[in-house]
Model the fold of this input.
Amino acid sequence: MLELKNVSGGYGKRTIVSGVSAELAGGEITSIIGANGCGKSTLLMMCAGLLSVSSGAVLLGGEDISALPRNALAKRISYLGQIKNAGSISVRSLVSHGRFPYLGYPRRYSPEDQDKISEAMQLAGVEDISDRMVSELSGGQQQRAYIAMMLAQDTDVVLLDEPLTYLDIIHQLGLMELAVKLKSMGKAIIMVMHDLNLALTYSDRIAVMKDGRLIGFDTPENIAAGETLQSALGVKAAYCADAGQYFFSMNTD
Done:
């Protein structure tokens, strides 16, 4: 379990996230939602240990992640951010990078490593383009290649910052179903999401942020029925059972 205990921090002297506390359990999908600039990505980077907290702590299984060696942390938490630059390498080489925390010196891939790489490419649907150069792929294909790299890392905590970017609808749904499969394996899946309907439909918990603070952390049903969506995003949500999805309207009250 990943636990945030009164976490605050940001960049330099500028505080972006203030006093966030939450328990992000294994076997659950948690979506972090909120307006642009509210601190979602900053919080996710703190969860990954890529950005130090100025106060509070991020605990992984009761251990402060700031005290863990980088290689040990990379075996337990994987992170896929928005900004990526693989350079001129093949998809298979990119995905292989996910196994780096497990390699000794010299870097030689074991049969287990090769199996994890192949499994990750199959799960992300990139095995048919494994020999192509990442730089030559479409945005959606690149995104799936990076997702495969993250899957090859095989961690218990998976952090995704806007993972649906560049994906068409069929691959968006495929990714969400993959998240469901990963949670069934006991992994904690934490995603920054802009698609409210997919977030509410697939998540076990919704974290709603506003101005750097966590103003709601509950089930999708309770979040949709409450007032935090109105406060954070200015919208109301209603679930249509016949359509099997949520519909949203602007809050004009």
Remarks:
- The radius of gyration is 18 Å.
- The chain has two domains: 1-76+155-253, 83-154.
- Residues 61 and 142 are 32 Å apart (CA to CA).
